[in-house]
């Protein structure tokens, strides 16, 4: 499945864009964010700046920021929970059906996203960004290879044995009972293990089709 890295330019007229440009050396690291209704959102973010109090004071002054809670503080860094009536960056992801990968950073008016989605969803994301007047550049798009194996060792061994025994041949050369006896497991266990393996294989195949 394609994996893309995008650099977004937050519009200056939006509070987040203005704030990030007023403090270009500050970094806003968004750890979690969600829309709690149609027009509002809540976020958890880490703000790193030389003067975090000044940054948060300015942030609290925006009409679109309705609540800020300081959860944890140390020199040059503060963890906050905030609510806003203008969570602009959530809208394109939501409307294109792509979940945002956390964390992502915003600095000097730019946000960096990494997303994994089928090609049609990535195209929809681009259309949504255009619709919300959010400029962006695509840093890269490449095929994402998952680090987790598709099947467990037990599933893989059973599927290989099933193929070798002719279980998937037409006509079938081996029954489920015979396969279970050959690998010395219960018939019910063989059935469930094959079913879960087949589910993973089919879903991965469909995902690959959607990404082409």
Automatic annotation (TrEMBL):
Keywords: Transcription, Transcription regulation. InterPro entries: HTH_bacterioopsin. Residues 151-203 form the HTH bat-type domain. This is Transcriptional regulator, contains HTH domain.
